[in-house]
Amino acid sequence: MDSNSVSPMPELAPIAEFDKSPPSPPNEEVPMDDLPPPPATISQPEGNHINKQRSRSYDSDDEERGACEWCEYALVITLATILLIGVSALTVFWVVYYRESYGWADDIPEKQFNLHPTLMVAGFITFSGFSVLLFRICRCFRRIYVKLLHAIFHALAFPCIVIGFLAVLDFHNKKGINNFYSLHSWIGFVAMGLFGLQYAVGFFSFLLLLICSKGTASFRASLVPIHAAFGVLTFILGVCACLTGLTEKALFTLGAERYSGLPDEGVIINVIGVTTVAITAVLMYILSRDKFRPQARDRRVSVDL
Question: Using only C-alpha atoms, what is the Rg of the chain?
């Protein structure tokens, strides 16, 4: 082809000449037809919905906590821990220093009885109190781990209560003392029965039934308020049993006249009782404060993928 037959290229216009129209005034409304369409939503296939995890929120509500709330949170945990450990330490000190320590022998049945107050305080107050405390305010672990800690502390309390009961039952039989005649024994028997029932129901419902979590979700949810209410009732009955038992022991061993003179052993027994009451007050305060309860992120109904 001849070079003369090629048409010349058109000259490009300057950049400034592409758009010479004046800018639109700021108050001019843009027609709705000129707006870009909204982004298309990604539709999920039938049966495949996003699974909203029903987990506890540890980050969002923690950011909203102020310095005063964190101080209250730390103070309550520290105070409860000191009291729960201290009441068992005081009981061991009282038995070792004033009651000739422990034993399980026929020659000195009183040493066998000494296992009863120590193990009952450890089971009903210390271990059960830590179980309630960790389940309510522990914000460091996933919920399943908190449930396991709750079950472990109750598992530690169970043998303490059983051995403590067997110790006093065998002591009464050796000394020829009637069983279950006092108010202390009646309250303690009811507390032990509720504790065993609570542990069996909780272990079956909230641990074993997790094997089929979706099929038993509604059933486990309906048991939560019942289990919580009877758990608090069991703890309070355990406290009442310990207080009546301490008073009964002080009157039987020291006598009313000597006990009224406030001897050293009587002071220790009273301090153990007051510490038990303080533990109850702190735990009830924690249970009444909603700010100590971890908040749920999303409680919408979810379907697994």
Answer: 34
d(CA 183, CA 248): 10
Closest C-alpha among 140, 279, 274, 147 to residue 203: 147
- The phi, psi pair for 163, rounded to 5°, reads -65, -40
- Rounded to the nearest angstrom, the gap between the alpha carbon of residue 280 and the centroid of all alpha carbons in its chain is 15
Distance in angstroms (rounded) separating the CA atoms of residues 177 and 170 = 10
Residue 57 has phi, psi (to 5 degrees) of: -90, 120
Token pair, residue 120, equals: 């009952």
pLDDT in tens, 19-76: 555 555 555 454 554 455 555 544 445 444 444 444 444 444 444 557 787 888 889 9
Nearest to 279, CA basis, from 233, 218, 236: 236
3-state secondary structure the chain: CCHHHCCCCCCCCCHHHCCCCCCCCCCCCCCHHHCCCCCCCCCCCCCCCCCCCCCEECCHHHHHCCHHHHHHHHHHHHHHHHHHHHHHHHHHHHHHHHCCCCCCCCCCHHHHHCHHHHHHHHHHHHHHHHHHHHHHHCCCCCHHHHHHHHHHHHHHHHHHHHHHHHHHHHHHHHHCCCCCCCHHHHHHHHHHHHHHHHHHHHHHHHCHHHHHCCCCHHHHHHHHHHHHHHHHHHHHHHHHHHHHHHHHHHHHHHCHHHHHCCCHHHHHHHHHHHHHHHHHHHHHHHHHCHHHCCEECCCCCCCCC
pTM > 0.85 = no
CA distance 248 to 113: 13
